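New to this. Please check this fold:
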Amino acid sequence: MLDPIQELMDEHRIIEKLLAALTAAADQEVPLEFYERAVDFTANFADKCHHSKEEERLFPVLEEKGIPREAGPIGCMCEEHEIGRGHVQSMRELLKAGDLAGLRRESLNYVGLLSSHIQKEDKVLFPMGRNVLSRGELEQLRAKFDEVEDPGQCHHYYSNLADELLAQVGLPV
């Protein structure tokens, strides 16, 4: 059984590839298509696949185990997810306008937010989760994650996309 918390951390490594590509792209002349693909990644992998598992599956279980939402780590993570969605919406609008300078700026704002967010989850919230969840609860969570998405298909496609975007800006895959 793949530990569902480890799965989320593995997804963070895929997201970090995109963040590295966006950072490098800010100093380069990349085509609008690069940002179209990056926004697809952020909307469909980072948010729809990854954040939904956290918000709809993991966080409620952690709340039941006593980890607070209000004025606590779960609330902070949810708030940052919403801020990230705002950045993605701004990037969509900038894409429609063909504003590459705006896309560079907004994507770096997104990178800053998500980089910090990932560290908080990896170093604080997820270890807290591991401390309060039993093996049986982790197995139940694993099954709930599978209801959200097919990890093999989603992970494979978006991991490859992240690698392609890294290569496009000259970074090692």
About this structure: The radius of gyration is 16 Å. The CA atoms of residues 18 and 36 lie 13 Å apart. The mean pLDDT is 94.
